[in-house]
Amino acid sequence: MLALLIIGSLIGTFLLAYIIVKFVPLKLRGVVSIVLLAIAGYLVYLIYGGIMEPIKFDVEKKKRYSKVVDQLKLIRDAQIKYKDVKNSYASNKDSLIYFIEKDSLPIIEVYNQDTIVNVGGGITSVKTIRKERISNYEKIIDYFQDRDYNNMFKVPDTDKEFKLETSVIEKVTGLFVPVFEAKIEKEVVLKGLPRHLVKQELEAIEADQIKGAFVSVGSLNEVSTGGNWPPYYDKGDAKAETKE
Fold this sequence. Notes:
It is built from six helices and five strands; from the N terminus they run H-H-H-E-E-E-E-H-H-E-H. It has helices at about 1-25, 30-85, 95-100, 185-190, 195-200, 235-244, and strands at about 105-120, 125-140, 165-170, 175-185, 215-220. Strand 1 and strand 2 (about 125-140) form a beta hairpin. The relative contact order is 0.11.
């Protein structure tokens, strides 16, 4: 569209210049020149807007996506803790929030225990066995003290909530494992932005973009707690870890 506008403007400029030289009386050329300058200024405005529109869209979408990704990371972290304790994933937000506020994570202590083993013929030997025991408990809420877990399912700057689903899949023959997925449509996140650019964004397939029509974490088709966003949305996490 922008290329067509530029090409059309160039062709139109040459045609108008030819018409002025060929047909417009000399005394009227001053007025025509003013009109042409106004038209040229308008065309420059349109071309500038066409250039800046996708740039502004890219800046705004990344700002919105960053907020959404932060919420999805919080849901993921809560689900991982839930699975550590329950060996499954929470199927709804109320269960997950209740878990954070009320449940605890056992601290497992690994120790060695010597056991006398009869090896036959009246001979015995000492065998060291590695064992585990619960030494203490940590409150789950301690992991989320500075994070707004009560609102983690709210999609930032909208009145919508993330969709949460859980399931069980067969990882290998005979081994079934729990999976979860939390997601929101890109259209919800990008509401109010230019429609033609939103449509392009829904079809994104580039490696440095969030692919597809959703922003999501986890998967119902494979064992994964990763998100579908590119690595640069995690740069803040890396900096925070380095700082700590």
